[in-house]
Amino acid sequence: MKLLIPLDGSTNAQRVVDYVISHQDMFREKPQLLLLNVQWKVATGNVKLFINQDTINDYYREQGLAALQPARNALDVAQLPYQYHISVGTPAESIAQYAREQDVDQIVMCRQGQGGLQLLLLGSVVAKVLHLAECPVLLVK
Questions:
Q1: How many domains does the chain have?
Q2: Using CA atoms in the order 104, 90, 17, 65, what is the torsion angle rounded to 10 degrees?
Q3: Domain boundaries, position 23
Q4: Which candidate, 75, 98, 73, places its Cα nearest to that of 6?
Q5: Are 98 and 4 spatial neighbours (Cβ–Cβ below 8 Å)?
Q6: By the 8 A CB rule, do 33 and 85 touch?
Q7: Quick check: helix, strand or coil at residue 5?
Q8: DSSP secondary structure code for residue 2 in this structure
Q9: Model's pTM, two decimal places?
Q10: Domain containing 94 — which CATH number?
């Protein structure tokens, strides 16, 4: 079974990884885990006039790796193999698109990420993923 775990670096998102680790015995064989972090596109408008694309790409990579690191550490300790990917774009659309591209069987995500004001301004990523995803979505509290 191929599982996609979108991660934003929050403690809520880390609970999804802990859930998968603690429930790995419910799978017949070890699931194929795909970790995904989506970075908001910061290079819009005239930003590229002042910052070159390599610097922008380095920023996305550093931020994405930092958000994925706790999950990677936990999966390494649990000896569960995984692959990871960092996308740039809007989270819900990027999650749904990556799930389609990778032909995942299920998306496993937390019901709320970083939240707060960001949630009010951007809308619920979870609600959008539920609408856009073509595969089942498991929400972990």
A1: 1
A2: 110
A3: 2-140
A4: 98
A5: yes
A6: no
A7: strand
A8: E
A9: 0.87
A10: 3.40.50.620
